[in-house]
Specification:
By secondary structure, the protein is α/β, with parallel strands linked by helices. The protein has a single domain, classed as 3-Layer(aba) Sandwich (Rossmann fold), CATH 3.40.50.620. The chain contains 5 helices and 5 strands; from the N terminus they run E-H-E-H-H-E-H-E-H-E. A 5-stranded parallel β-sheet has the order 3-2-1-4-5, with helices on both faces. Helix 4 runs parallel beside helix 5.
Length: 148
């Protein structure tokens, strides 16, 4: 049975469908849920501008991965509210598929759940497709959830 599940999210509605499925499965079998989101660092110019717009005691919140932290926090809170008792969030810089694969390998995951976005028509043959890359390189089983 699955003891450790990895799911990726970018905060989109379609990714949320995959997260919802992962939450339901993790809850029903008592598995640990690892939620992964990839990011590109926020540019130095944007950080400078944003730091000037917030009070000094909150400037620590303005960082190169601030956007992904918010996405992961929301997903983790939703998972816990959905009844999953063991949730971990992982922010990784770089390619989303590589982030998911890396966390799955590091955590010894039994299952990766991804949405099918980007797998329709000719797009499924593009190397950049997250579900396609994950399904071909995963160190464990993969569940591709129909999100569209």
């Amino acid at each position: 049975m699955f003891r450790s599940i990895v799911v990726g999210t970018d905060g989109s509605d379609t990714a949320q469908t995959a997260v919802d499925e992962a939450v339901e499965l993790a809850k029903s079998i008592g598995a640990k849920l690892h939620i992964v989101s990839a990011y590109e660092p926020v540019g130095a110019d944007r950080l400078r501008v944003e730091r000037n717009q917030v009070p000094a005691d909150l400037q620590w919140m303005v960082n190169p991965r601030e956007d992904v932290d918010t996405t992961l926090q929301a997903a983790a809170e939703a998972a816990e509210a959905g009844g999953v008792t063991d949730v971990a969030a992982h922010a990784r810089q770089g390619d989303p598929a590589d982030a998911i694969l890396d966390v799955a390998e590091e955590q010894g995951a039994d299952l990766i759940i991804v949405g099918n976005k980007g797998m329709t028509g000719a797009k499924r043959f593009l190397l950049g497709s997250v579900p396609n890359k994950v399904s071909h390189h995963a160190p464990c089983s993969v569940l591709i959830v129909r999100t569209i």
